[in-house]
Every structure is written in structure tokens, then in C-alpha cells.
Amino acid sequence: MVKSIVVSTARLPKTLVEKLKIYAEYFYLDETLNKEEILSNAEVLITWGQDFDYKEIRKMKKLKAIQTLSAGVDHVPFKEIPDSVLLYSNAGAYSEQCGEFAWALILALSKGLNNIVLERQKYLEGIYSKPRRINNSKILIFGTGGIGKTVARIGKGFKTYNVGVNRSGNKPEFFNEVLSSEVAFERLSDFDIVVIALPLNKYTYKLFKYEQLVKLKDESILVNVGRGDIVDEESLYKVLKERPSIRYGSDVWWKYDDKEAFETKTGIHKLPNAIFTPHISGVSGKGFIEESMSEAIENVIRIITNNNPRNLVDTNDYI
Amino acid sequence: MVKSIVVSTARLPKTLVEKLKIYAEYFYLDETLNKEEILSNAEVLITWGQDFDYKEIRKMKKLKAIQTLSAGVDHVPFKEIPDSVLLYSNAGAYSEQCGEFAWALILALSKGLNNIVLERQKYLEGIYSKPRRINNSKILIFGTGGIGKTVARIGKGFKTYNVGVNRSGNKPEFFNEVLSSEVAFERLSDFDIVVIALPLNKYTYKLFKYEQLVKLKDESILVNVGRGDIVDEESLYKVLKERPSIRYGSDVWWKYDDKEAFETKTGIHKLPNAIFTPHISGVSGKGFIEESMSEAIENVIRIITNNNPRNLVDTNDYI
Questions:
Q1: In this structure, is residue A180 part of a structural domain?
Q2: Residue B314, number of CB atoms within 10 A of its CB
Q3: ipTM of the modeled complex
Q4: Which residue in A147, A144, A152 sits closest to A71, CA to CA?
Q5: For B237-250, what is each residue's pLDDT tens digit?
Q6: Who is most buried in A71, A147, A211, B232, counting CB within 10 A?
Q7: Which domain holds residue A151?
Q8: Is residue B270 one of the residues assigned to a domain?
């Protein structure tokens, strides 16, 4: 049997290459002398996305599938991909770390750790530091995929009441209720904590505008571990300035010129009621890259062997 | 029937006063005109401790019990208290908030939120910021009382392996194992996270000296929500300077001249691998004072009615 040809734009760890080679002829693109030939014969492409010029896809006449190493696929230029090529994301591979990170932001903001002052009374009374309690709080989680589920599970340790937001209406474990986003926005003022764990696509782009954000409860916390552009920057800036008791934590940033900038037009990341980190939530702990790549490679093997591959992207969500 | 006389050095909320008045004659000491007379007749004293001159106890000939509003009783001058007077603490009344706060410190330190830099690579590689993963980590919790139990319960949301340290050998819910402190110190290098949730008494004073601290694992996190003096300041300072990958978080401080100073002799609180907050962990969220006072008042009612009062302090632990 002729093995499928798989190319990767990222260097994979040796153990994963060996695993893959049982099922495929594997090439790491950067080290391939005959790049043009390999591209023209490759059936599966593994890529981070940012390390690949998608215009090359025109040359890949035998390409059947793309497997991203990233969880999100919002960076993919969908117009460049022929209809015959299926796109698989690596959704779920970073869920545990991202979910933990969402809680790190929630707790830091709840307890005022971004505005520590050593005068006790000032700490306790300061608008930006005043500690709050998590126990028994109501948390609204936009997105009930891997990250959302992890956020909900961790919340149960704190005895939170978890409400999920999704399109399917399915209620995964650790959620008390699930709502549509329309109903969720109507009830936004009920929640102490709101977490955004959604992918960025045409439905979620600027889903949170002034009209929605203004409904946030006083002293509530909004955390974003999805994508920056799910929230409208100017609207959020306005709300955080107008209502300093609302606190925002984000590991994700707005894209300017198609690139996530660790800088903001409004200066929102410097507000005292905000914490911003430079998109590092998925990258926590030793061995993380191997583990998340491993998830993608397992899926590539499922693709090659026609064994129910996961995370097929519905391109209609993006175009 | 003659009601017991109860005095409080702290102003109690109206609802609690009303509750108490069903069982006792109640006086708020500061507002009492005939202070000397009340003291000489009082059977129960409710106090924070810091707001009371314990020398007054000599005048309190009918005193049977003291109920502290604080969880810890390390501030009490035990020599001033006659053997006939029983001391009850308010242990447990702050457990939920303190346990949450321990996790706020653990997560902030794990994810480097105290050393955020916006250059992504610097953040990921920085000795003081490099993010770590909580999931599957091993956590050693000194003290399996209210705070320890809360820390263990919250840990389960993160899928931690929880090992408790206590004298009784009892294994409460959410703990995987329980050890004596001798065995725990022998195995200290096994743990990713170590939490101190002990009271300060003659057994725990400077329990963590250089000899113990030096066994901490590389890249481990030590969090103290017990009392500062459970750890020897100079030893800890030395370890944190020598091994910058170890991170320390503390809401509690060393006592200088019998007073918790939000300042340190060594300057340890300014180290980049440390977070210090000014003893605010118990004070999170609206209504916290009422709730924790309520626990104490419920116990006073148990004392008066001989109905199994809780948290009797063994003064031998202190003298």
C-alpha cells in the first residue's frame, strides 16, 4: 500500500514523527530539498498557520486535508482553500491550560492582586483592589467547548453556579444551565463573572458591543480567553472607564492589520481595572507543546486512516 | 431565670444582637456607662482580641468563657487568663475566603501575573513569569481544618493530588493522603505546591526553617495563609534569593514587637518571586463581617445553653 504524504510547516518532536511514519510518508517542509515536489504530492498539511504562506496551496493538487496546530482557525485565509480540502483545527488541545488561566485572571481581579497596596484599609476600600468572594457566585461562560468545560469544572471547586452559552443547547457536565446568546445577553446583569471562551468567526466577531457590555453587573468580572475581536475595543474601553467597579482580564488582543498586537489603540490594557497578558495562556508548563502537537498528530492519523477525525471546521462559520 | 451577661468589645450587627438577647443580657462595652460593673458581672466576653486589654480580665470575677471573633488566637496573652475561663476561637469562619485567596496566590504565581511583560517570549522564558500548569500537580496542605479543606476542595476542580498534614491522622474529604509533619517534610521535594493553613502556636512557630525550606522542589510554589511566624523570615529570604524558581505568596506577615507589620526586616516582600498582601484574605466580599460574626454568636449561644460549643482552644498548644 502506498502511504499518504504528510508535510508539516512546524518541526514535530521525534516521538510524534515516528508515530506518524507508521501511517504516512512524513516531511518537515523546512528541511525538504525538493519542496515543490513534496507540496505537489502532499495529501495532508500540518501547520500553525502563521508559518505558512497559504498561497502555496494552489500548488498542492493532491491536498485533501489541513490540520492546524492552533486551536483557533480565525487566521486561516479561507478563500485560498479549495472546497475539496477539509480543514481540521486542534480545538481542545489547550483547554486545560486556558481554563486554568481564565481562573488565574478571575481570581487576580477578584482579589485585587493587580492593585496591591500594603495599607490594609486602602486595599480593602480601593475601587480597583477591594476583594470579592467567588464562592456561590454566578458565572456565565460563552462557549461550552474544551475551555468552557474546564472553566465550569474548576468553578465547581469554588461552588459557582455555571451557565453556559452555546448554539446547540447541549448541556455538558458541570453546567447548571445552558442558554442561547440572545437570552444570555438579556440576563447579563445576573452574573458576577462572565467568561468568553469562544472561537472567533463571523458570528462572534464583535459579539460584545456597547449595547451588551453596558448590561454587565456592577462589580462583575469579564474574562476573555477566546479572541480579542469578539469584544469591540472602543465599547469595552468606554464601559471600563465609566464603571470602574467592572474588571476585565484578557489573554487575547485585538488584531490590527491582521496581526494580534500586544498594544492597544485605546490604551485599554493600561487601565487599572484591567489585566492583559500576551497570549500565553495555552503555553503553561513543561511539555505543553509536545502534548498539544500530539493531539493534532493523533487526529492526522485518524484523517489518514478514515477513522472519525475530530474538529472538522465548518467553513461557513467563517466566510 | 436570670440571663447570662455577655459583653462584646466589638459592635455586633443588630440582627445578631437581637438573636443573642433571646438568651443573654448583652452589652457592647464601648457604649456601657457602668463598664466596671458590667465587667465584674460578665460571664462571656466576645472580642477581636486586639481591641481589648486582657489585663481587665482580673476584674471579671464571674467570667466563664471568651469567644474570639478572629479565627486565630495566637495574639491572646494566655498568662492573663485564669484556668477557670474557657477560650473559644472563631476557627472556620473565614475558611471559604482564605481558601479562595490561597488559590488566588497559587494561580497568580503559577501564571506569572505578578511579573507580566508584554513581550510574549520574555514572559514565557522569564524566571519570574514563566507560566506553569496546575492540572495534575501534587499539593501539600499543612493543616486540614476549615481553610485546608477549602484549599483541597478547590484543588479537585484543578485535578490536583491533595496531601494533608495534621496531628490527628484524620483524612477529611478531598484529601488523597494525610501525613504527619515529620513525614511531610521528608517528602517535601515531591510537591509542586505547598500551602500553610495552620494556626500559630508553640508547635508551629518557625516550623519552616532553612533545613526544611531547602527541600522545596525547583519551580515549586509556597503559599502562606496561616501566620507569618510559622516560617522563619531569614531562612525563607535566603531560599528565595538562592533559588529564584521557587515562588512565595503570603497574606500574613511576621510580627515585630508583637504586631503584624506590613513591612519586613529582610525586604523579602519586595522580591520578584514573592507576592505579599496585607492580611486581607478573610475579608472578601459584601457581608463577610456579619457572616463571620454570626458564626461566633451562634457559638456563644451554644456556650450559654451548654449545647456543645465548638472550637475550644487547648491552651497547652500555646503555653
A1: yes
A2: 9
A3: 0.92
A4: A147
A5: 999 999 999 999 99
A6: A147
A7: 95-276
A8: yes
